[in-house]
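Lecture notes, unit on binding sites. The following record was shown on slide 14. It pairs a sequence with FE2/S2 (inorganic) cluster.
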Amino acid sequence: MPTPANPRPGLLAKVGVPLLERLATPHSPDRYLEMINPTWSLREVRGVVTSVHRSAPESITLQVQPNSNWRGFQAGQHVVFTLIIAGVRRSRCYSVTSSEHHRDGLLEFTVRKGPDGLVSGFLHSDLAPGTVVHITQAQGDFVLPSPRPAQVLLVSGGSGITPVMSMLRTLCDEGYTGRVTFLHYTRRAEDVPYDDELTRLAAEHDNVQLLRVCTQEDNDRDGITGRFSADQLEQHVPGWRQATSYVCGSARLVEDVRALWAEHDLEHLLKAEQFDPPAAIVPTDGEITGTVSFSKSGKSADNTGRPLLEQAEALGLTPEYGCRMGICFSCTRRKTAGNVQHLHTGEVTTESEADIQLCVTVPVGGDVTVDL
Ligand code: FES
């Protein structure tokens, strides 16, 4: 298995990088370093997969040892994985599930196999210990505040468990004494990754309340059933209005939670992250008009109303992307003309020049040009 540490990273960073880059021109020095060891790089984070195991029927959990370019993470953050599959670079966004205080330096990820998941399918069928992966530094502001709040409520659905698992592990590791409620929704009991660990953490920590809810089974293992509702919170989490709260899951779960918090003027206590694309694409003006132009490539077509990332791909372009749902910012490009609407926030950007996320932005009200 390759050794992930870079050769003398401190010296290279301070003195040798500019010299090596000049010597290696026209190629990157990484091209030569990776011939010696595929995890070596002057600046990129690369890691070697150290273990892979099946954590639930449709989920795998993998551990990655990053090289010395890795700068650490906060519980709740994600990275963009890039893999070469059949000769094509593919990127996807996955949350770190490890505790911030993990001592072995390994990063853990749990990946659920999606119905048309090219990357998740590859990870499930082909990933083996020893595989080298390229990852970004940790990203995202879906994180616990510091100092920690007096009470924390973690709500998740399906694969949305991953960032909040990292938060729960982190809080338990640092001896947090405030109340933590872990409310997780899944279709079936067997689909819960980390099920045994959750049971153990709740048994070992009096301040941790564990509520696992099965939405498609008559299974009230933690005394609670059915889809997310205000009644459930009132009955099982009476102090929820005072908690600093996090929700991660499907668009429906996130919307339901957001609506309840808004109804009680508690948006300032809620952070949300959703793990599937926005459900509806309805431009503010209700009409799909105009032309979409990609100036660098010289391509254009009638606006279809779909996100700009899809419209670019339909024209044969291959812009960079990661999550395809507005989380990772990998697809950010400059809009140089026209108006666009963000599908999560509904916000319309009218400035002539603005950086936009192609995967969650649609043209509105006429022609749009993107620097791509
Ligand atoms: S691909 Fe992640 S924000 Fe667009």
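Take-home: Residues 246 and 271 are 5 Å apart (CA to CA).
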